[in-house]
Amino acid sequence: MNSASNALQTTDDSAETGAQQIRDAIRDAIVERRLSPGTKLSESDVGNLFNVSRTLARAALQALSYEGLVNVEKNRGAFVAYPSPDEARQIFAARRLIEPGILREAAARITPSEIQHLKQLLLEETRLMGERGQTARRAEIKASGDFHLTLAAISGNAIMQRFMDELVARSSLVIALYGQSTVSSCGHSEHGDIVAAMESKDLDRACRLMLHHIAHIEADLDLRERRTQGLKDAFEP
Amino acid sequence: MNSASNALQTTDDSAETGAQQIRDAIRDAIVERRLSPGTKLSESDVGNLFNVSRTLARAALQALSYEGLVNVEKNRGAFVAYPSPDEARQIFAARRLIEPGILREAAARITPSEIQHLKQLLLEETRLMGERGQTARRAEIKASGDFHLTLAAISGNAIMQRFMDELVARSSLVIALYGQSTVSSCGHSEHGDIVAAMESKDLDRACRLMLHHIAHIEADLDLRERRTQGLKDAFEP
DNA sequence: GTGCAAAAAATCGTATACAATTTAGTCGTC
DNA sequence: GACGACTAAATTGTATACGATTTTTTGCAC
Q1: CA angle, A62 then B148 then A153, to 5°
Q2: End-of-domain residue from the set B80, B95, B129
Q3: Which residues pair with residue B78 across a beta bridge?
Q4: Rounded distance between C-alpha atoms, residue A228 and residue B29, angstroms
């Protein structure tokens, strides 16, 4: 009865086999910053690493390039994306443009159980903020993104959800490159404030908080050209 | 000096060879409605048609699946996307959500020469509206989409431009399936009104017109399940 | 003639092989 | 010793080949 069952999953049945799994594994590695921007992803290496042929490795890399997480250069290979400051600005401009709309749709459709789910995410987030260690920070980054992705899922629009998937993943790359503050990339209790505003049906306030939140993340960035990037451009323009 | 040169084109140099060209060719055929929704795109057939191996055909089809223009079903093959009424609603919901924001950014950055370019597009559009024949109607559909895509290009955000690329292409599929009016799918002189509002710096009015315009397109659709779809589902569930 | 089961054909999933391009290394010349 | 051209290694681009899954056809029983 609920048409969302059709909308929530992009592919009909289980994964398209092999390539999909490899793509997800590499994407996780990129988003969790275990793969640094600019790292070369040789097709042979990826294939050997996952015990598959170069065919599947190549398919996975191409898929990642469509999401903007990997750049494939003709006859040169695939590299973990190294977003330029300008790309970073575009990513956040896109989020400022999109997320308020998603928030409004989500607020209009949200159910009590979904509110509960969101609150649980917030608890997990604050818990991770209290812990030490790299793994905790990685989990925190992921949880922070999951908040925005869950909102997109609640909005019920599979297309916007996919767009947000891409934007959140790329945001993680940008924060890895240009983030300054050692602490939480996403912030404070701003997520909680947004949920509170949604609960009290104050949509305008929720949107304002969301925009403020995104601006806050962006303000923590130092969007100056990195040396490595400059060097690369100097050698291979 | 302008870092936009890096941002405006997703791929650095010319096409990734083969697969990219095939992808574009098939995409054009889909958008121009020379390939009907639901048509099977066998890897072998596509390969033979373009005189390439199945490898490249497959890569092109996968690329199209990432754009939502074809559905690849595991072990069954690729088919020109057959958007469900629900998907159609999501596509237009996404456009309503995104396009006002793009319009605002475009209005803030637009140059006189770009205004001129837009006006030329409008002239071309009205010219095509006056002509008869399938080819003219195809060109009209394309021109109508180009208006929205040009706006996205002017906004200067390559990411939003890509999102709009996808949404406009999929909209064409939806209109092909569910459009009712035999005449212009996109409408009247609404494009012209939007440009006029932009020129007079009346952003709020421009956004209102844009939303009205999108609603107008959607209102022309008959979003009922098509029989063919039902039959197909009955035979191959 | 209808319905089901098994075999044949077609199609996709994946691996391997070869050609083309790039990159690294080497040798010779200045 | 530095620079440039040539050769060799590595990597990507594309094609072909083989195994797995699906679809169609065939054949038989009822």
Answers
A1: 55
A2: B80
A3: B41, B72
A4: 42
| Predicted confidence (pLDDT) per residue in B39-94, tens digit | 999 999 999 999 999 999 999 999 999 999 999 999 999 999 999 999 999 999 99
Query: Which tens digits make up the pLDDT trace of A36-53?
Result: 999 999 999 999 999 999
Per-residue confidence (pLDDT) for residue A134, from 0 to 100:
83
Digit-coded pLDDT (tens) for A125-151? 888 888 888 888 888 888 889 999 999
Chain B residues with CB-CB distance to A14 below 8 A: 74
| Burial class of residue A179 in the structure, from the number of CB atoms within 10 Å of its CB (0-12 exposed, 13-18 middle, 19+ buried) | middle
Element (H, E) at B221: none
- The domain spanning residue A48 has which CATH number? 1.10.10.10
Q: Which residue is closest to A85 within chain B, CA to CA? A: B3
The helix (H) or strand (E) run that includes residue B73 is strand B70-73
Same-domain status, B56 and B117: no
CA within 13 Å, CB half, B135: 0
CB B26 within 8 A of CB B72: no
One domain for residues A76 and A110: no
Q: Could B160 and A97 be called an inter-chain contact, meaning their C-beta atoms sit closer than 8 Å?
A: yes
Contact A121, A150 (CB under 8 A): yes
SS (H, E, C) B1-16: CCCHHHHHCCCCCCCC
Residues B206 and B105 in one domain: yes
User: Smallest Cβ distance to A97: which of B7, B17, B98?
Assistant: B98
- Distances in whole angstroms, Cα of residue A213 to Cα of each of A95, A113, A192, A202, B106: 11, 24, 11, 16, 24
Chain A interface includes B108 (CB < 8 A): no
Q: Which of residues 163-222 of B touch A (CB under 8 A)?
A: 163, 167
Least confident of A163-177, A192-206, B169-183: B169-183
**Contact across the interface for A157 and B90, Cβ inside 8 Å:** yes
Nearest nucleotide, C1' to the C-alpha of B42? C11
Quote the ipTM score.
0.87
Count of domains for chain B: 2
Tell me the residue range of the domain where A71 lies.
15-80
B174 and B88 Cβ atoms separated by less than 8 Å: yes
CA distance B93 to B87: 10
Question: Is B40 inside a domain boundary?
Answer: yes
Considering only residues 68 to 87 of chain B, which have any Cβ-Cβ distance to chain A shorter than 8 Å? 68, 71-74, 84, 86-87
pLDDT at site B131: 87
Regarding whether A191 and A94 lie in a shared domain, the answer is: yes
CATH number of the domain that B111 lies in?
1.20.120.530
